[in-house]
Hints:
The structure holds 4 protein chains of 4 kinds.
Chain A: E1 13-19, E2 22-29, H1 37-42, H2 46-56, H3 61-76, H4 82-111, H5 115-135, E3 144-145, E4 148-149, H6 157-179, H7 183-189, H8 197-203, H9 208-212, H10 219-222, H11 243-266, E5 286-294, E6 297-305, E7 311-317, H12 319-331, H13 336-345, H14 350-354
Antiparallel strand pairs in A: 1-2, 3-4, 5-6, 6-7
Helix pairs in contact in A: 2-3, 3-4, 4-5, 4-11, 4-13, 5-6, 6-11
Chain B: H1 2-44, H2 60-70, H3 81-100, H4 117-126, H5 128-138, H6 142-173, H7 178-188, H8 192-195, H9 197-210, H10 218-221, H11 236-260, H12 280-295, H13 302-327, H14 335-361, H15 367-398, H16 407-434
Helix pairs in contact in B: 1-2, 1-14, 3-4, 3-5, 3-11, 4-11, 5-6, 6-9, 6-15, 9-11, 9-15, 11-14, 12-13, 13-14, 15-16
Chain D: H1 2-23, H2 27-47, H3 51-75, H4 78-83, H5 91-114, H6 134-143, H7 147-168
Helix pairs in contact in D: 1-2, 2-3
Amino acid sequence: MGPQHPSTHGVLRVKLKLDGERVIGSECIIGYLHRGVEKIGENRTYQQFAPYVDRMDYVAAVSNGLGYCEAIEKLLVVEAPPRARVIRTILTELQRIASHLLWLGTHALDIGALTPLFYCMREREEILKIFEKYCGARLTTHAFRIGGLQYEAYDTLEKDVERFCRDFESRVTEYETLLTHNRIWIGRTKGVGILTAEDAIAFGVTGPVLRASGVKWDLRKAAPYAAYDQYKFEIPVGTTGDTYDRYLVRMEEMRQSRLICLQAIENIPAGPILAKVGKVLKPPPGEVYHAIEAPKGELGYYVVSDGTVQPYRVRIRPPSFINLQAFDRMVRGHLVADVVAIIGTIDIVLGEVDR
Amino acid sequence: MIQATMDFLKLYWAPLLCGLVIVAVLPLIVGYIVLVERKLMADMQARLGPMRVGPHGLLQPIADAVKLLIKEDIIPDNADKLVFWLAPVLSVGAALLSIAGLAIGPAFQIARDINIGILFVVGVSAMGIFGIVLGGWASNSHYSLMGSLRSSAQLVSYETAAGMALVSGLLLTGTLNIKAIVEAQYTEGIWFGMLAPVAFFIYLVASIAETNRAPFDLPEAESELVAGYMTEFSGFRWSLYFLAEYTNMIVVSSVATTLFLGGWLRPFARVAFFNFLDYVPSLLMIGVAGYCLLRTPKQPSRVQQLFMLAVAVLCFAVALVLLAPAVLPIAKPFYAGIHGGFWFIFKVSAYIYFFMWLRFTIPRYRFDQLMRLGWQFLIPLSIVNVLVVGVALIVSSYFNLHGWAMLLVTTPAAILALVVALMILAAGQEGQAGKESAAAPDFYGG
Amino acid sequence: MLPIGHYLFLSAALFIIGVIGVITRRNVIVILMSIELILNAVNINLVAFSRLYGDVAGQVFALFIIADAAAEAAVGLGIIIAFFRNRETVLADEMDLLKW
Amino acid sequence: MVDKVLFYIFAGLAIASAALMVTRRNAVHSAIFLVTALLATAGIFLQLRAEFLFIVQIILYVGGIMVLFVFVIMLVNLDVALQQIQFARQKWVALIVALALSAQLGLMLWSSEKIPGQGIPVLAAPAASDLPPNSEAVAQSLFGTYLLAFEIASVLLLVAMIGAVVMAKKEK
């Protein structure tokens, strides 16, 4: 299946070894979208590198930005003000819903259901409107700055988010009625691409794929960052780790994110939005590893600074790249038509895989 | 010689003329079905669909047709010229030929009551498989060959299921002649779809699979086969295949309407109480005309307003034509023809609406699930159903029940058939659970 | 209903072409097809005489011939596929080994 | 009059496509010409007022058997078969056989008019109108007088199906 293929979510080439219809082995050839983001990081100042981070996982740019800014704040031993932390949480949770919506739309389209894609896009449009009102950009937002936020929350932010969350609940149930109990959907996804818990941990898979295999691990609970410790929400966990479970886990995650947003907008604390961080950032030499729960999985930043204005090394742990490793184990023994469903269910974005 | 051709013409001028009209009008009808489909799909997906060409996109089919005609006609190298040209022609030919056997209204039938009516239609549309198989082969690319083999395998297997479903339907009618079938439903006073609901259901599913649509449109929509057997065809040739697919859809839905939904009969045809239904067609058309009038001022450009006005006037005229036989005594004899035609078209479009509705909402089957459904579920069920309907008929003729009374016998028969269906399903499920390999999807799980 | 001679001549011609096909062609599939053609020629005769005598038995018999042709084609093609899978050839001449 | 015209069209088509079928190098082309020959024969059945057989011929022969043939031709990948020469050496043998056969048949047809009493009884065929409706008549006789033959034919088909499945099954 060539790099330019309707259902590989970007430029991913999969070499399949077939016996008739069954897949015996597969090999993913990547690198078509490699822009050398990490090398660029080494000769850009900390602030200048922030927009590059959004271009990696272009579907969830806000959470990339959050991860990077918090990593540098940890390096500078600076704490973002509470108001900035709450707004950051709201925007990241909205981005998670948007990323899951895009996943649901394209995944359903690959398996043949035409309508969910448009419903998801309609919701995602609402979220992108909120981003646009807040920071001017819809996709690669560059909304956060090291030490807090650049822009004050526009006055109707609470009202917009509240309006969105209010009717989003009925929308999710709308998708569920369309797909969850649909006999053909179950036929196409149940028992397809099974990843047992041990394999998931062995491959280092994270995010919804890991949780669907039954491992209850979510960084928002394990190592709370931003303002997640203030809010109550559950972590959905699957049982068999097949495509159907991953579908259920992600749908449940959308509902949980909605709850977080509702709790967050109740009390956005007043106060400054930017910590006292000088124009020129010269973090003390040293290294830091900070990971956040991006929609695809654990997005980690390992930044080494040598005291100068530019980082010595920026290593990014992309969740999609590592989830892709489990692809071969899942595809083995399935039919060619299932390969398409499995690529959809591990929800990879090639910008993040290739960097 | 001239004298011979003269009396030949005198004898057959009507069918020849109707045939010519059908072949000319059909691409237009198919074009508008495509437009309706795109509009419906857009409506269900919270968007607008083609709006740009003509008011509300009404001229879109013409634009599509012109585009297809002037598109460059690519022939893949060392493809087999003869077969490459022949395949789409065969496909369209079979579809158009089967239209000839259909009866739109009691008066309007091209091949005047052939003795083997329905069988002729089904048989000739079975020829369409050749168009697909040869098309796939002629464009000698590995993918389209695989796609064409898959789709013809699907067609052949679902045709048996559709055939058996028709057999159980024909048990009730007793004859193959289309006109006689509808008359039988008139005398019985009940549509055969109600007497043999399981047969109707099987035929519904099989006809969807036969026209490669909705959940079974695997061969051309499969992600790795891209467009199946149609990939290499471009421009006019591709539109021939497209025309064949939609004509097949019309043919299949009219066969279902004739046999199961009482052809051109008004619902409750014989019950005097429901005579007000005669006015429904004209009221409907007046409603459409009113809506068009409402929309005319809102059209952006002047010419579109005129066009919308013309459409409104046209609908109004049709409403008058439909009203005449119900009201004016002199137009009484035309009553059957006009109203019959309306009800037939109404039912066929309802059936096609169901086709489209399915296409937008439910995902697609995988090929092995599709074949398993066909062979392990539909065909045995349809054979059992023939048995069950036969027994029900004997019992009902024993007590000589007729019309609605027959329901007393046929509904338990239908329930029996459904019980057997569930047993087949359960058996199918064990078969699945038996297979240990993770690959075999739990077909009817959940 | 034309005089019977026409139909007889037509079926004779088809029969002869079928026989030529069987003898001259090397490709087994085409030989099978020629046999179908011969069966068809026989059918024409049957139906012609059944029409001549107005007795429908001829057509029923033709029905049986078609059923038989279907059975024969199915088994024949099965053999060809099995054979092709082993010997990669479809030519009658190369099917000379008694046990492959 | 119409009968005569129809007959000549169908007969000519049948013979032409049969001849083409035998001479074509490419198996798929010969399959297509066989389909045209079968359709022409179906036309002749129609001309002989045998509609049931006409439609059975189309559904069973063309829709069923020929699709099987085209399937197998495609499975047996063509390029292998094409290079191999298509025509056997016994061209001359075939010619002699054909001549002998046509001579014999010609003699039979020709002699029928000449020798009284042996030839084909030249009856006036019954008019088309008073023929019983075709499919009902076929049904009556098929399930009436020839019921046993019908059952045997179904057993034959069953055996053929089993045979074909066993033959073509992939050895696991």
